[in-house]
């Protein structure tokens, strides 16, 4: 069971590493991105080595019992060192990152020597290492330095993430930083469990359920939150763009079918995406769909009667639509009317000045607004508006 869980988490973590590494190779000047990529790799390696079968396989390969624990904790040190370096970079500290890296490297070298001198037997302990060697001074030094460095990195990164998240006002980066901070606090709880377990072991009252049960579980959840915190700023906008594409696609298909001249040939000469990877360039494609729908709206405005928006407003209010729903409903009705009149060759005089209702929304909100237009485009209430407009046009022609 532990093998399946840890290997599954490890595979997901390495996938995130590959994704971040690809982004970093495109932007080599982004030192923070490169650093988070390395930190994520450290967390991924922790999951991989936490699988008992991998742990034992590695020790058999090198012929040294529990050496996998040194590699596992060294991966944690990579993450902790990266957290300390990020803290220095984000705060503009006068301390040079190289100094911190050198200090951590020196301390960890002492810890590894302590492990080498203090390991008293050749029995594998993938899940109870800290309690099995609680009386070995060298291993205690190893564990104490590990918890001190790891705890310092978590505390510093957690404080900074919370501080910066509060300044970013609901962006995906802010959400990622908050999740990352939560992972850091939970990681500190893991450190506390380990320290308490060691203290009770020295007092002759071991708490194996805390050191070998609660602590690893807490660490695993913390690591997942850390990975999620690193992934959210990159995956969140793409997930939002994918949802917008799915919502806008029916409307985009319909309006560009009647106005194919606005559809830009994107790849392989087709206005539809035909690349091998369906999730590529999601933001660009969502923006392109929005722009093309707006082009159609501008193109049909001379085919829309001036009273179209007003009739839609009255019917929408009567139906109890809220402000945002009403604006989307009015645009949907005007757009459908314009396309119908355009197809029939009707150009009312005078035509509407615009079929776009000003919302004062930013770019992200404009995407959501057009998605609402797509949602209500074929609602029966829009049909009622079109029927009334048709009746008025017929009466005027008579």
Helices and strands in order:
Blueprint: H1 2-26, H2 31-50, H3 52-62, H4 67-91, H5 97-118, H6 129-132, H7 137-165, H8 172-202, H9 208-258, H10 282-300, H11 307-318, H12 323-344, H13 363-376, H14 380-397
Q: Based on DSSP secondary structure assignment, what is the total number of beta strands?
A: 0
H/I helix tally: 14
β-sheet strand percentage: under 5%
Main sheet?
A: none
Helix content: over 70%
Supply the helix-strand structural class: mainly alpha
Shape call: elongated
Taking pLDDT < 50 over at least 5 consecutive residues as the criterion, the unreliable ranges are 265-276
Helix-strand string:
HHHHHHHHHHHHHH
Radius of gyration: 30 Å
Distance between the termini: 79 Å
**For the residues shown, what is the average pLDDT?**
86
């Amino acid at each position: 069971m532990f093998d399946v869980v840890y290997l599954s988490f490890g595979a997901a973590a390495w996938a995130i590493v590959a994704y971040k590494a690809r982004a970093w190779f495109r932007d080599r000047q982004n030192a923070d991105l490169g650093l988070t990529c390395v930190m994520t790799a450290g967390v991924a390696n922790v999951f991989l080595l936490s699988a008992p079968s991998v742990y034992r396989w590695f020790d058999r390969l090198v012929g040294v019992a529990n050496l996998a624990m040194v590699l596992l904790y060294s991966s944690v040190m990579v993450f902790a060192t990266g957290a300390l370096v990020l803290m220095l970079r984000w705060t503009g500290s006068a301390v040079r990152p190289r100094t911190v890296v050198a200090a951590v490297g020196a301390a960890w070298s002492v810890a590894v020597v302590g492990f080498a001198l203090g390991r008293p037997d050749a029995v594998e302990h993938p899940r109870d290492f800290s309690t099995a060697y609680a009386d070995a001074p060298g291993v205690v030094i190893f564990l104490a330095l590990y918890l001190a460095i790891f705890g310092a990195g978590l505390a510093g990164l957690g404080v900074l993430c919370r501080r910066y998240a509060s300044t970013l006002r609901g962006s995906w980066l802010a959400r990622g930083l908050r999740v990352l901070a939560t992972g850091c606090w939970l990681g500190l709880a893991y450190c506390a469990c380990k320290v308490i377990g060691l203290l009770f072991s020295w007092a002759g009252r071991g708490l194996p359920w805390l050191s070998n049960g609660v602590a690893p579980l807490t660490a695993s959840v913390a690591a997942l939150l850390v990975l999620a915190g690193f992934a959210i700023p990159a995956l969140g906008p793409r997930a939002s763009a994918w949802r917008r594409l799915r919502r806008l696609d029916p409307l985009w298909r319909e309006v560009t079918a009647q106005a194919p001249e606005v559809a830009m040939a994107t790849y392989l000469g087709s206005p539809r995406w035909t690349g091998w990877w369906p999730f590529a360039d999601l933001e660009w494609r969502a923006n392109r769909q929005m722009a093309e729908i707006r082009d159609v709206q501008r193109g049909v405005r001379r085919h829309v009667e001036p009273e179209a928006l007003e009739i839609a407003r009255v019917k929408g209010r009567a139906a109890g639509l809220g402000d945002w729903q009403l604006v989307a409903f009015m645009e949907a009705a005007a757009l459908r009317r314009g396309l119908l009149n355009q197809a029939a060759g009707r150009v009312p005089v005078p035509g509407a000045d615009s079929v776009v209702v000003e919302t004062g929304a930013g770019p992200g909100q404009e995407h959501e607004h057009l998605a609402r237009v797509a949602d209500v485009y074929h609602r029966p209430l829009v049909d009622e508006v079109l029927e009334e407009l048709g009746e008025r046009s017929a009466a005027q022609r008579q």
